[in-house]
Design brief:
alpha+beta, Rossmann fold, 33% helix, globular, binds zinc ion
């Protein structure tokens, strides 16, 4: 009944003007909608009570492969319960909390890292074929173009795809001339990957376990839809930082927790999938990159692969308006980020990006990072040495005027 009334109201307000526009983009184009969504998000953040970890623990059931954690970014132990996504058909549900200290969104209880492999052991690659594969590759191309010149010419450059799946991206990296490698946790996916590739090589497990990869010196490391799956992001990003060459970059593509789509969709947000654990935004990702030794971070807006790549998905006027609004609000439904290993890397590869920030690098947290997981991890993130507060990124060295103005 309510849905019907809403539909009717939209018809009266907007007519059929936006019917052909994909839903993720309608949000930006329909007048007044962004403002309403933003207010709703702020209202939800403010309204949720802040509770201690002890109280949260007492009120929340704990699954067999789960553990309670403090904020993975700033170690704050208090939390606000904001979302509880569920899928009745597939029978899963979890809780997503917000850190009142730094605003980070994460699943709590989280998955114990030693059980992460269980989630990807079988069947994870079955949908990576046919039409879905073509959509994926279109999306990769759109992001690669947005990050030009990073992916323009791979000749003489080493690339690692962390969480390469069935190698849909590695196939494109090969075509652009990169000396390409991949790692993944799913044996099924790797089998498909080997059939697809001609020169690139893929390995099962952690990058430390393959000699060709552990040697490091990578010019580009990519993480396509991987960040949200990592229960120990500090360990993984520190390790990847060590594998980068001096002018190397880490390219991260993940769901954008700072996007208007989250307050718009609430528990039904497309970012809340079964295996997602942590949800980053332009506000929170810089803290993690600074903590793991990156000298800078850059962001590119994501307008949606279809509307960018397919002619006449939107009228030229609508596309122009969409771009201006995405640029001035949230940078889109997906987060497109580049971590720069050094200042040199930031200067060389970040010049085209509209939002680039220098980071104050924090001293490493683990004395002996070495291969594999550092000892003492079972204690959870709360056991880490406390910090005075989240790292604030330094203001952009060359901020550009807001393109929406
Ligand atoms: Zn925090």
């Amino acid at each position: 009944m309510l849905t019907h009334a809403k539909r009717l109201l939209k018809r009266v307000l907007y007519g059929r003007r936006y019917d052909h526009v994909p839903w993720p983009q309608q949000l930006y184009l329909r007048p007044g909608e962004r403002q309403i969504r933003r207010l709703r998000g702020a209202w939800r953040d403010r309204g949720a009570p802040t509770v201690s970890l002890a109280d949260f623990r007492a009120a929340t059931p704990l699954g067999e492969i789960e553990e309670f954690i403090s904020c993975p970014l700033c170690s704050e132990s208090r939390q606000q319960l904001l979302y509880q996504p569920r899928n009745r058909r597939r029978n899963w549900t979890y809780r997503v909390v917000r850190c009142p200290g730094c605003g980070f969104l994460y699943r709590n209880p989280n998955i114990r890292p030693e059980h992460l492999g269980d989630l990807y052991a079988t069947g994870y690659s079955s949908f990576l074929t046919g039409r879905y594969a073509r959509h994926r590759q279109r999306r990769y191309r759109v992001v690669m173009d947005a990050l030009s010149p990073i992916f323009d010419d791979g000749r003489g450059r080493r690339l690692l795809d962390f969480g390469c799946g069935a190698a849909l991206f590695l196939e494109l990296a090969e075509q652009r001339g990169f000396e390409a490698y991949g790692v993944d946790l799913s044996p099924d996916s790797l089998e498909q990957a080997r059939k697809r590739l001609s020169s690139a090589r893929v390995f099962h497990g952690s990058p430390d376990e393959a000699e060709e990869i552990a040697a490091g010196g990578f010019h580009v490391i990519t993480m396509w839809s991987v960040m949200a799956h990592l229960p120990r992001p500090h360990d993984d990003l520190s390790m990847l930082r060590r594998l980068l060459a001096d002018d190397g970059v880490l390219v991260i593509f993940t769901v954008n927790a700072g996007s208007l789509h989250l307050p718009a969709q609430g528990n039904g947000w497309f970012g809340f999938t079964r295996n997602h654990l942590m949800f980053y935004s332009r506000d929170t990702l810089p803290t993690l990159l600074a903590d793991t030794g990156f000298a800078g971070v850059g962001f590119a807006p994501f307008y949606g692969a279809k509307v960018v790549a397919v002619d006449r998905a939107l009228t030229p006027r609508q596309l122009g308006r969409l771009k201006r609004r995405v640029d001035s609000t949230d940078f889109g439904s997906m987060l497109v980020a580049v971590g720069f290993a050094t200042e040199t890397a930031a200067e060389r590869w970040g010049a085209q990006l509209p939002d680039v920030r220098r980071l104050a690098i924090m001293p490493p947290r683990c004395a002996e990072p070495g291969p594999g997981r550092p000892a003492g991890h079972g204690a959870g993130a709360g056991a880490r040495s406390p910090r005075t507060g989240p790292t604030r990124p330094t203001p952009p060295g060359r901020a550009r005027p807001d393109p929406a103005r």
